[in-house]
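S.,

Sequence below, as promised.
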Amino acid sequence: MAAWLADDIKRFMPAEQRKNWKGYQHSQLQQSLAYFEKRPQEAFLLLKEGWDTSDGSSYWNNWVMNSFSENNRFEKFYENYLMKRVKYFSELAENIKQHTHNTKFLRKFIKQQMPADLFPKRHYILKDLETEKNKVLSKPLVFSRGLFDSNPTFIKGVKVTENPELFAEWYSYGYKTEHTFQHFYGWERDYNELLDNELQKGNSFAKNSIHYSRESQLDLIKLKQDLKIKKIKIQDLFLKRIAEKLFENVFNYTTTLSLDEFYMTQEERAEKERIALAQSQREEGDKSSNIIKDNFIWSKTIAFESQQIYELAIKLKDLGKFNRFLLDHKVLTLLSYDQNKIWNKEQLERELSIGENSYEVIRREKLFKEIQNLELQTLSNWSWDGINHPREFEMEDQKNARHPNFKMYLVNGILRKNTNFYKEGEDFWLESLKENDFKTLPSEILETKSEMVQLLFLVIMIRNQFAHNQLPKVQLYNFIRKNYPEIQNNTAAELYLNLIKLAVQKLKENS
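The prediction came back faster than expected:
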């Protein structure tokens, strides 16, 4: 109501005052109208600073200003204002009708009896529907008071801190005592400098017509300033809630941020820098836990928990990266191997990339060397001229071009040379398998094959998966764990490496 009233009064201001009317003055007018009951003269005095109320040439000067001077109760003032407003517009409409047929007199009347731009032309010109629709959609939505909560935000004589249930929930939320805020809100406040600055402005407060003592003026400044700070604290609280909701929408993970961690003094930041520098100069072999340098908001850490993942401390700025890491196909496959196991970030990284027997190290330095040695041994045991690659170890592609093929190395170079390795037809079965069959073959089918055929299948499957930077599917992982319990391993990659070593050893023993 105060906002509409302030806007409406502004329509009737003298042109010069409206031209120089500042945003902060308009905000003050709205506030003065909102607290009319407590300070009935404040809005009137604010308007009088630039509004010549003694000018009788403009009819509206009288009824606007008289509405203030005649009433000290807001309801009576508002009713009086609206009644005089209706009367003014009714008389204005009647006079316009009388001068409708005389343009000259009509313009003269409008100039004398209407404030400039009382009816802005742009408000009364209809544009095409699409333009009007886009204009409406481009403006923020303003909802009526009480739309989300019918309880009020002000009850005369009742404090929200003592009876929070009587007030709108969103309003009383900001006054709950369990909230924590930035540390600087608790620092001691000195209002003397603020008072001195206020006294130099030359406004009604500085003139001190009521002759307040300096102590009383200081109390008043303190009250006003503390209210401003309280509003900002509540804004911080709701901004924190908005940040948490945005965080959840972006990262698909709920978190609770703490306002008391959002600010550090220069001394606190310097101490963080010192600790970080000392940690970077640790001696070799120092296995003390890492200290995260969290001297700005995105370096703050949160606990992350999701199904099989629990990470005690992960930086806010790294959460998106960590989420993408968890969607990596190797991570998803690794988690499927044991769905009851809980992993943290360091364990996953040691398993897949940075550990001595991690997937990356074994893939890059060990496993393919075993495969190459097996190929070389197979080729050495085959009769060939040393120049032309044996056709038996090749396959044709879709363009009928022939290429060396690891599966054919094992089928023709090992399996068919040792008929005791397989039952009838198993060699053709293994040869007929497509690349995707090695990924998806049910373990029940593999169980029906001869031991050496199973081993060769697993060697081909592991080689193919590692060549494509992948891990074997869970059913084949479980098959290996079940049928080769003698294999010792610390990581999944080491299991596959040792399976290949076991296969090579059995091939040598049985050939």
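The beta strands are 301-306, 309-315, 394-396, 402-404.

Coffee later?
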